[in-house]
Amino acid sequence: MLAEARSAPTVVKGQRADEALYRALADKLRASPPSGIVTIARGSSDHAAGYLAYLVTARTGQLVTSLPMSIVTLYRAPLKARNVLAIAVSQSGSSPDLVEPIRAVRAGGGTTVALLNVEASPLGEAAEWAIPLRAGPEKAVAATKSFIASLAAEARLVAHWCEIPELVEALPSLPSALEDALEKDWSHGVEVLSPAERLMVISRGLGLPVAQEAALKFKEMCGIQAEAFSAAEARHGPQALIGEGYPLLIFAVRGPAQADLVALADEMRARKATVLLAAPADVPSRDLTLATTGSEDLDPIAAIASFYPMVEAVTRARGMDPDQHPYLSKVTTTR
Fold first, then answer.
1. C-alpha distance from residue 109 to each of 35, 82, 105, 171 (Å)
2. 260 to each of 217, 230, 256, 286, how far by Cα in Å?
3. What are residue 86's DSSP bridge partners?
4. CATH no. for 2-163
5. Which helix (H) or strand (E) holds 23?
6. Is 209 within 8 Å of 217 (Cβ atoms)?
């Protein structure tokens, strides 16, 4: 797991080989703008799809919906897919609940895109556009480099599709920013979180998918009951759980949500919760330092890169092997 997480900068650098493919798809989407956009994914890939949804909607105002796949696979609903764009995100491309909706959208006249790590897969064959993540074989049960590759691929697609010059210009420096992120010292987080049995992971906006991914990793690797919330949601019912000593990991990446997240950290410290605020170096109250990139839109990718080595260390500190799991398998097939 650790070795694969550390390979992320090389993986992202390799995606430059497909620049022409991204540009061709972007040209097609601008020439025939979709009337609706849906994402199709599960697990870590669904968190990655959430990043795409935030990025597209924030930049264009166009709504992006996460498709409940059982609508197709179980309820057999006839999708009205004409002029719909469906984007599936997957590591293996094998699960029927991804393949069947993509086939349904394509048959209904929609545009289908698969961001996937295994091109020669049922999903790769079903989609009109198959874009390789280029993460290479992922042997660890926990997805790391493929998640980072998914975020980077989505950012590359949106940068060209929405014609965002500053994002296009920032992408070449992302691998070096990831290298910086992987070298950040998050050992304090290992000390604080190793004894935890429950915790909240909080962010907002583009950072929320990273919080969701972090919470999943705490559950599946460390056996910690972790839940992800936006800062706005946490201020409603979930805050009833937060008392003295309750652990919170807060991702305060740059952007319009950062001030609110830093303020929430201060509020929870006043309540004597155990707060780990992950923020860039210019935030004095931070507990963990986040690397920054050439664009605020890319900062969440660097944030999760710093998180993965920490959660791997937390797993080991709790006496568990992050590379062996009695219940989880690398590929899950569901309908």
1. 12, 4, 7, 32
2. 25, 11, 8, 14
3. 38, 112
4. 3.40.50.10490
5. helix 19-31
6. no
Q: Which residues are CB-neighbours of 259 under 8 A, at least 6 positions away?
A: none
Q: Which tokens go with 40?
A: 């199709």
Predicted pLDDT of residue 328: 63
Query: What does pTM read for this prediction?
Result: 0.95
The CATH architecture annotation of domain 183-316 reads 3-Layer(aba) Sandwich (3.40)
CA distance 179 to 177: 5
Q: How many helices (H) and strands (E) does the chain have?
A: 15, 10
Express each pLDDT in 156-215 by its tens digit.
Answer: 999 999 999 999 999 999 999 999 999 999 999 999 999 999 999 999 999 999 999 999
SS3 228: strand
> Around Cβ 16, how many Cβ atoms within 10 Å?
13
CA 245 from centre of chain: 28
